[in-house]
Write a structure and sequence with these properties.
16 strands, alpha/beta, elongated
């Protein structure tokens, strides 16, 4: 019962739209999917594999969320909105993890054994992100919307892009932007950096300096449009509703 209470409390802690216990119990498919999974996982671990798969299949049909009964899910797990979430057989999800709609915890191999990711405590995965392979995502890491993560991520990181790149660690940026500014990022959608735009901007600046010739002072070309989104990457937020 303690785990079930943690699951419910996680909704109130992480969804400002949650108003009453009755509303959460009756209208949150993410919560229903987790509870279906806890029963299916018990069946799976007690060698009742077919009933476990059947229950998970029914839960998928009812909630739009597919969790293999072999996956290990910790307490306080929260799936917001949930539609399209897929969690593979050997995935391991630690306490107080949050997933948004369209997230995949998938594999990259047809081999038996561990082939899905492990998410440590407090990880947040933004809408549409894919975490693939037997990798570990360190505690309290934030993965931006639509990122594709295929490599290990240390704790307290922020990951954005395709493929996913660690742009911040331990609350401080790993790199600085072209203005020399360091950005603090947590769940502020517009503050997540666009690493692709940053790389293209640096390349464009270098080409402009080369065209001005040796000895020319660094600066912006007269015809170069202003860079309104430099260092912010407004399109790489977490996609939270």
């Amino acid at each position: 019962m303690g785990t079930l209470r943690q699951d419910i409390q996680a909704v109130f802690d992480r969804d400002p739209a949650a108003r009453t216990w009755w509303e959460v119990l009756t209208t949150y498919p993410g919560l229903h999917a987790i509870w279906f999974h806890r029963v299916a996982h018990w069946l799976w671990t007690h060698h009742l594999r077919w009933p476990g798969r059947l229950l998970s299949h029914a839960a998928r049909w009812l909630t739009g969320i597919e969790i293999h009964p072999g996956a290990t899910i910790g307490p306080g797990f929260f799936i917001d909105h949930g539609m399209g979430v897929v969690i593979g057989e050997t995935a391991e999800v630690g306490p107080n993890v949050t997933l948004y709609h369209g997230v995949t915890l998938g594999g990259t191999s047809w081999n038996k054994g561990k082939r899905h990711p492990t998410l440590m405590e407090g990880v947040v995965v933004g809408a549409g992100a894919k975490v693939l392979g037997p990798i570990t995502i360190g505690a309290r890491t934030r993965i931006g919307a639509n990122a594709v993560v295929v490599k290990e991520v240390p704790p307290d990181s922020v990951v954005v892009g395709i493929p996913g790149r660690v742009t911040h660690r331990l609350g401080a940026p790993v790199t600085v932007d072209e203005r020399g500014q360091r950005h603090q990022v947590d769940l502020d959608h517009g503050a997540l950096p666009d690493v692709t735009a940053r790389a293209l901007k640096m390349l464009a600046d270098r080409v402009a300096r080369l065209e001005r010739g040796p000895g020319a002072a660094p600066g912006r070309d007269e015809d170069e449009p202003p860079d309104d989104d430099a260092g912010t990457g407004g399109g790489h937020g977490f996609g939270l509703a």
